[in-house]
Design a protein that fits this description.
The structure is a single chain. This protein is an alpha/beta fold and 389 residues long. The protein folds into two domains: 2-194 and 369-388, 3-Layer(aba) Sandwich (Rossmann fold), CATH 3.40.50; 211-368, Glycogen Phosphorylase B (Rossmann fold, 3-Layer(aba) Sandwich). 44% of the residues lie in helices and 17% in strands. An eight-stranded mixed β-sheet has the order 3-4-2-1-5-6-7-8, with helices on both faces. It has a six-stranded parallel β-sheet with strand order 11-10-9-12-13-14, with helices on both faces. Strand 9, helix 8 (224-233) and strand 10 (239-243) form a beta-alpha-beta unit. Helix 3 (85-109) packs across helix 4, helix 4 (119-133) crosses helix 6 and helix 5 (144-151) packs across helix 6 (155-165).
């Protein structure tokens, strides 16, 4: 039997939490392939040290004073490490504590394979584990870690080290695979996306006329400002749900909406549970992804499972999901007038939206169902174990 250890700095903190939920989905689905998964994730305030979620054991490794354990789960790790001495010290503690906890779990639970999600910090720890134990390492790149490797001095060398230590490197999109190979020519990544809860996302007849949806952290890379300005020049007076608001820095986007005269047409939501988000997918008529350089965009998959077509910038891995003219529309990056035209075009054509939604759901079920994804990864695990023996 395969007993795998997942290393992940983003993982659900409670039932229904969307943070790293795809990692949990994979862990659960792998049981059907005869793979027993244990998860090692960082500690954080309010989280138990050991727990079981959907039958998957989780250990949260302490790595410093409780007030310092803030690197994981919020998407601010690189900023904290880059901006403060405390962040750098916390990162050293996180790496050391994760390595120590991993070695202990391997010994206690009979682990025979390590799967690191994100090359940093998990893949770096996994490489050390591989050096100490000889266990095969699978490393999956999700997007933010590739940007880190490209943008931080010295990070590309560490990335190549992780690649050499890994029996297999996988990426969640073909775009990420090309970028990873450009940095490490000897690494040939396998494109293997993460699974989505297909039973949770489905269509309904509760669509709200001309209702758009945006999901994501309110940072420049996600492109909400482009969508707001596009709404200002659209012919159709659409309304918008924005999911992901709540930080102090998000006020700039609220102010932009107000300056464009959209304050009554935009509803701001915090990060939501997947159950609550699923309801918004079913209510929207179009999901808009005006982002640049998305690793994949699992929200696009969730949207298509809900038979909600997607209009997105043709950037990053989104084009692996959104087939232009078939499951949605792709627009040149940063082209706000093009985005406005595409939204107007699709809002005016209910028949086309229905066709795209149905095609999108069929494709999403084929590629992103937990069963299909788990089978692909289990095959890679078996190959890695066979090669290492």
């Amino acid at each position: 039997m395969i007993r795998a250890l997942f290393l992940a700095h983003a993982y659900p903190r409670y039932a229904g939490d969307g943070v790293g939920s795809f990692v949990l989905r994979l862990a659960v689905a792998l049981r059907g392939e005869g793979v027993d998964v244990h998860v090692l994730a960082p500690a954080a305030a309010g989280l138990a040290g050991d727990e079981v979620m959907e039958g998957v054991p989780i250990r949260r490794a302490r790595y410093g004073p409780r007030r310092w354990e803030s690197l994981a789960y919020e998407g601010t790790m690189s900023a904290q490490v880059g901006d403060s001495l405390r962040g750098k010290i916390s990162m050293v503690g996180l790496l050391g504590s994760t390595l120590q906890s991993a070695l202990r779990l391997i010994n206690d639970e009979g682990i025979n394979l390590v799967h690191a999600h994100w090359w940093f910090p998990g893949g770096l720890v996994g490489s050390a584990v591989h050096a100490v134990t000889g266990l095969p390492l699978i490393t999956t790149l999700h997007g933010s870690d590739v940007r880190l490797a490209e943008g931080m001095r010295g990070a590309s060398s560490l990335f190549r080290f992780v690649g050499r230590s890994s029996a297999r490197v996988t990426t969640v999109s073909s775009w990420l695979a090309r970028r990873a190979q450009a940095m490490a020519p000897n690494v040939v990544p396998l494109v293997a996306p993460m699974p989505v809860r297909t039973e949770l996302f489905y269509s309904s007849n509760d669509r709200v006329t001309n209702r758009l949806l945006f999901v994501g952290k309110l940072v420049d890379q996600k492109g909400l400002d482009h969508l707001l300005r596009a709404m200002r020049i659209m012919k159709t007076p659409a309304t918008l749900d924005v999911v992901g608001a709540g930080r102090v820095d998000d006020r700039q986007f609220v102010a932009l909406a107000e300056s464009l005269g959209l304050e009554r047409r935009v509803t701001w939501h915090p990060l939501l549970s997947q159950e609550a988000l699923a309801e918004l997918y079913r209510r929207a008529v179009i999901h808009v992804i005006p982002a640049r350089d998305e690793g994949l965009g699992l929200t696009a998959v969730e949207s298509l499972l809900s038979e909600t077509p997607v209009v997105a910038f043709d950037s990053g891995g989104v084009s692996d999901v959104v087939i232009n003219g078939e499951t949605g529309l792709l627009v040149a990056p940063d082209d706000e007038h093009g985005l406005a035209r595409a939204l107007d075009e699709l809002l005016e054509n209910q028949t086309e939206r229905k066709r795209m939604g149905e095609k999108g759901r069929a494709r999403a079920l084929e590629v992103f169902s937990p069963k299909a994804v788990a089978r692909r990864y289990a095959d890679e695990y078996r190959a890695a174990l066979s090669f290492s023996q």
